[in-house]
Amino acid sequence: MSSPGDIRYGPRFAVVGNPENRRVRLFTAAVRAARLPEPRIVAWRDVLRDGGAEFGADETVRLDSPGEDAEVDRVLRGVGEPTRVEGGARWYGRFTAAVRSLRGGVRLDDPDELAVLFDKRRCHRLLDRAGVPVPASPTSGGAVPVRGWDDVRALMGGHGMPRVFVKPAHGSSASGVLAVETAGPGRIRATTSVELSPDGRLHNSLRLRRYTDEREIAAVVDTLAPDGLHVERWLPKASLHARTADLRVVVVAGRATHAVVRTSRSPLTNLHLGGARGDLAAAVEAAGDRWARALEICEQAAACFPRTLCVGVDLLPAVGWRRFAVGEVNAFGDLLPGLTGLPGSGAEGQDTYGAQVAASIRRRAPRDPSAPPIKEHA
Q: Is residue 374's pLDDT more than 80?
């Protein structure tokens, strides 16, 4: 008898991505390890040039990040310099249109859900309405416009938020994010990866900057505002070994499978901005009997996107590791090379890509005719 992993029953993958990108290479390696046919790679640059792509009914279609390709970014963002921060709204419009131009196949990423995942305001509202703990936000849902720094200042004062994160609505990888804190009249500081050039343009940098001149902070926010901004309360986070800590938890097919602790001496823990992987065992020990609740919250957040196979959840542990909130849910949050699955997750020994391949195989496996019928949930 053939097993569900038999190549005859496994999915035939197609991947939309940037062919030279390590994400595509890692996923391809996972497909090979599962002894499935080599995936067909469809380049984002070709999708954008040709106005879409066609997939066969037997192809399982995975979308990967369009990032880390200067030409693709130029077409999506509309600016010639890959380090530029501006152009997020244009990127969002063109990217979601490109996703909707893909036709056919069995999709692992739902176009409507991707449109929400890449709008922090809409994502926040969806999570909040589903009962997922999230930081308080006056811009949840996008009904409150943020036209510039004056609006940010007014929202901070009106909602009793002396410390906030100001995030581009359609940003990723902390691009354009400012951690803003005030301490009395005239005292203000913003920590960000944004470099403000003399001509007023904004560039991403791998070095964090701290602005204390309100005029410079205002210039950054005013430049970002036309692309849409999301403002949320800055929650004090737990620490691990004297460093601020949060977690990236990958959820595959509804189950939390992988987790990494990110630590930093700054408010931004992103690994490419100087953050470092922390000791997961120490975090689990610190959380104690609340660790199960932490993973449950991540699964609850992923359940808001039932037609998307995999998401990466940024989980914010409160001081003391007793409470947790979801900071963001990432459509392409699975790039954690070398990380294997959590004990008891069903993904032990697999990386994030191997876990997704295995989940896809399970979905395509033939059913035992003697098994009871599957009941669909409304």
A: no
The DSSP letter of residue 289 is G
Question: Which candidate, 204, 17, 211, 9, places its Cα nearest to that of 102?
Answer: 17
Angle between helices 149-158 and 214-224 (to 10 degrees): 110
Neighbour-count burial of 52, counting CB atoms closer than 10 A to its CB (0-12 exposed, 13-18 middle, 19+ buried): middle
Cα angle for residues 116, 91, 113 (degrees, 5° grid): 15
C-alpha span between 244 and 319 (Å, rounded): 10
Enter the tokens of residue 73: 């970014």
CB 279: neighbour CB atoms within 10 A?
14
Collapsing DSSP to helix, strand or coil, 172 comes out as coil
Pairing state between β 53-63 and 12-17: parallel
What is the identity of the amino acid at 356?
A: Q
pLDDT of residue 181 exceeding 50? yes
| Helix segments in the chain, DSSP class H | 22-33, 44-50, 70-77, 88-100, 111-117, 120-129, 149-158, 214-224, 280-287, 291-302, 352-364
pLDDT score at 206? 85
pLDDT at 2: 37
Specify the pairing of strand 102-107 against strand 239-240.
unpaired
- The structure tokens 């949930």 sit at 377
Instruction: Give the predicted TM-score (pTM) of the model.
Output: 0.92
Rounded-to-integer distance, Cα 247 and Cα 287, Å: 12
Give me the chain's average pLDDT, please.
92
Helix, strand, coil distribution of the chain in percent, nearest 5: 35, 30, 40
DSSP 200-256: S-EEEEEEEEEE--HHHHHHHHHHHGGG-EEEEE-PPBPEETTEEEEEEEEEETTEE
Burial class (CB in 10 A: 0-12, 13-18, 19+), 262: buried
CB-neighbour burial class of residue 186 (10 A; exposed 0-12, middle 13-18, buried 19+) = exposed
Could you tell me the CA-to-CA distances from 188 to 33, 181, 235 in Å, in that order?
Answer: 52, 6, 17
Under a CB-based contact definition with an 8 Å cutoff, are residues 274 and 208 in contact?
yes
